[in-house]
Amino acid sequence: MTRTTRISGAIRVAAIVGASALVLTGCSVFDDLFGGDDEPDRNDDGQVSDVVENASIFDITEGDCLGEYADDGDVKVVDIIPCDQEHFQEVLLITQIDAEELPDQEEVRAQVIDECPPAFEEFVGLDFDESELDIHYLSPSSDSWEQQDDRDIVCTVYDPSGMVTGSFRGAER
Q: What are the pLDDT digits (tens) for 15-32?
């Protein structure tokens, strides 16, 4: 995952999106090689009760809190952490790419700019440009597109100052 620096307005979104384009969701060819075969246990609210280490990227859902993961450009597994424990980021939106072929990064960035900031505002309760928080995203790799039928763009919210405890939902910061 690429961390971004705080800038303003459309330039801020473009910089975040541009930096994030370096990190593509490294969705595995075989889930059992990259993460567990079983989906995480979730409570009635859909959240994990215990830390799920090395979960497949395909097992995350909106509202999941995640640990920091390797910034190697190909994310296959993540640690899903209960939001009341220290974590790095939270999934605010999972949206789909509606295309027959994997779009180029410019097209993916355009979709991210269209969809992630409005979802951020609804999730956090504050306009993205007014927030101290930042957005990051993951998108399909060419391998995951072809081999896993991966069409997900995963938008996350994080605090550039570091790890946090508690959900960003309704944080208004």
A: 454 444 444 444 433 334
Beta strand 74-75 pairing with 24-25: parallel
Contact 60/152 with Cβ under 8 angstroms? Answer: no
42 within a domain of the structure (yes/no): yes
- Would you say residue 78 lies in a domain? yes
**Is pLDDT larger for residue 87 or for residue 6?**
87
What integer pLDDT is reported at residue 8 of this predicted model?
38
* Domain total in the chain: 1
DSSP string, 42-93: B-TTS-BSS-EEEEEGGG--TT-EE-----SSEE-EEEEE-TTS-BSEEEEE
